[in-house]
Amino acid sequence: MTRYPVLIGGEEVDGQATFADLDPSTGREFAEVARGGPDEIDAAVAAARDALERSWRRTKVAVRARILRRISEFIRRDRDLLADLESRDTGKPLRQARSDADTAARYFEFYASAVETLYGDTIPIDSDLFVYTLREPYGVTAHIIPWNYPLQIGARTVAPALAAGNCCVLKPAEEAPLTAIQLGRIGLEAGLPPGALNVVPGFGEEAGAALAAHPGIDHLSFTGSVEVGKLVSKAAADNVTPVTLELGGKSPNVVFADADIEAAMPVLVNSIIQNAGQTCSAGSRLLVEASAHDRIVGELVDRFQHVSLGPGRSDPDMGPLISATQLDRVASYVELGKTEARAVTGGGPPHDDALKDGFFFMPTVFDDVPPTAVIAREEIFGPVVAVSSFTDLGEAAHLANGTDFGLVAAVWTRNVNTAHTVAREIRAGQVFVNTYGASGGPEMPFGGVKRSGHGREKGLAGLLEFTQVKTVAMKLEPGRA
Ligand code: NAI
Ligand code: MG
Questions:
Q1: CA of 416 to the centre of ligand 1 (A)
Q2: Ligand 1 neighbour 205 (Cβ under 6 A)
Q3: Which ligand is nearest to the CA of 282?
Q4: Quick check: 402 and 371 in contact, CB under 8 A?
Q5: Which ligand 1 atom minimizes the distance to the CA of 145?
């Protein structure tokens, strides 16, 4: 069995203990991972501080950019290996894992370019004052990421941080840490100074909690559950450490009867099937105009029944859920849902002996879901979509805003006025019109409102998030020239 280490200061360290990494397609252990704890977090934060002061903070922007570009090249070089590892670790279909590797490479490429044009301002106040701003790195940045897209989210958060001149401690989730560790190795190979990117796998309550509470970190970026987001925010507040939170959602697709429904259908399906619904921006609510309801639900059910399930590495439409815990969580939401609405397809694990040891769940549609139902409001994080109907634009916007979350939304219509009116009314960080998907463009700012979190990742906004402004004001003496 392959062993995976902790990466601290450019060294591969065993840690005091190990934990088992499971293949969610079979439920069996396939790798052994060093279990970082408070000691490893201490050492990683110290190594990051050392790399920061020794070189990275002062490394020329062009040199930083060149190293980040080399990381993106090496991710592309290792695309198949990384995709295979990610697929094994998370259960996701291979083609999704390949696309994640491509996106991870794009983050490094994009931020390499973006940082080269990250200028400060000059501020005209008075003829005898010269005022300018500098965009400086925070220093040591901490990154706690989840198990659903370790490679992509790992890249999404450390690429801008490194580009801006920070040194990082990355804590991947215990369920799927392997590609994050590989990313750390690639960073070193590409020329990052030892300690610029440390990777400490371990449990949330141990390594994660130690990192969030560490007085040596200058910024914390967290992606995961609302519950843990609150915990890490409180821990960081004790050190007045700024926090970026990306906490998932209950994102709606709002479909008007005049939409190109034919074109919408595969996108609507993919928005909840992708990664078995374990996506922060999953399209887990489907709000349909009543006159188109029967057609849309009919086609949805038909398409759900043709979704192929299997181990990620056999490249099916949909793989398993990440863990037995997540399977239980999804199953209990679905059982509750059956008391609130009608399950019109799916509703449980598949009846297939070949899949019985993995954490599989059938794609599930609940129809006629009252907006007050738990399954219409809470994040299930599985392949489960809740369908509700509306009769006019006002009701559509009201329903769309009817949860505590606000990450992503989509409006489907041919009417430009409807599209932009609903886009303005919806409280979400991203709104799509006649398309869906945050996965693609690293160029597009992304993040939540309400319980979905705060701060922005991706795009130029994501780079600014890892910088602090310093203002320099100098008194001139024009008369002395
Ligand atoms: P989680 O929030 O526990 O895990 C996310 C990360 O936080 C992992 O790296 C974990 O090790 C770390 N962590 C856990 N407890 C911690 C603590 N006390 N201090 C510091 N770090 C800690 O999420 P979990 O339990 O894996 O999933 C539960 C639910 O959370 C899911 O069903 C889903 O609804 C939501 N979720 C949302 C994600 C998103 O992309 N926004 C990603 C993962 C989960
Ligand atoms: Mg795993």
A1: 38
A2: yes
A3: 1
A4: yes
A5: 9
Report, as an integer, the average pLDDT of 136-159: 98
For atom 32 of ligand 1, the residue with the nearest CA is: 381
What is the set of active-site residues? 246, 280
Task: Output the pTM of the full model.
Answer: 0.98
Report yes or no: 44 and 12 within 8 Å, Cβ to Cβ.
Answer: no
Note the pLDDT tens digit of each residue in 124-144: 998 899 999 999 999 999 999
| Statement: residue 479 has pLDDT above 80 | no
What is the whole-number distance in angstroms between the Cα of residue 89 and the centre of ligand 2?
4
Sorting pLDDT into bands at 50, 70 and 90, what band is 440? low
Mutating to test ligand 1, I would choose from 19, 225, 380 the residue with most ligand atoms within 8 A of its C-beta, which is: 225
**If you measure from the C-alpha of residue 342 to the centroid of ligand 2, how many angstroms do you get, rounded to a whole number?**
33
Cα 389 to middle of ligand 1, angstroms: 32
What ligand is nearest to the CA atom of residue 177? 2
- Whether 146 lines ligand 1, by a CB cut-off of 6 Å, is yes
What pLDDT score does 443 carry?
A: 95
Cα(127) to ligand 2 centroid in Å equals 62
Residue-level pLDDT at 481: 64
Query: pLDDT band at 430, cuts 50/70/90?
Result: very high
202 touches ligand 1 (CB under 6 Å): no
Q: Over range 200-215, report the average pLDDT.
A: 98
Show the 3-state SS of the chain.
Answer: CEEECEEECCEEECCCCEEEEEECCCCEEEEEEECCCHHHHHHHHHHHHHHHHHCHHHCCHHHHHHHHHHHHHHHHHCHHHHHHHHHHHHCCCHHHHHHHHHHHHHHHHHHHHHHHCCCCCEECCCCCEEEEEEEEECCEEEEECCCCCHHHHHHHHHHHHHHCCCEEEEECCCCCCHHHHHHHHHHHHCCCCCCCEEECCCCHHHHHHHHHCCCCCCEEEEECCHHHHHHHHHHHHCCCCCEEEECCCCCEEEECCCCCHHHHHHHHHHHHHHHHHCCCCCCCEEEEEHHHHHHHHHHHHHHHHCCCECCHHHCCCECCCCCHHHHHHHHHHHHHHHHHCEEEECCCCCCCHHHCCCCCCCCEEEECCCCCCHHHHCCCCCCEEEEEEECCHHHHHHHHCCCCCCCEEEEECCCHHHHHHHHHHCCCCEEEECCCCCCCCCCCCECCCHHHEECCECHHHHHHCCEEEEEEEEECCHHHC
The ligand whose atoms approach the alpha carbon of 457 most closely is 1
Q: Is 87 in the pocket of ligand 1 (CB under 6 A)?
A: no
Number of the ligand 1 atom closest to the C-alpha atom of 279: 40
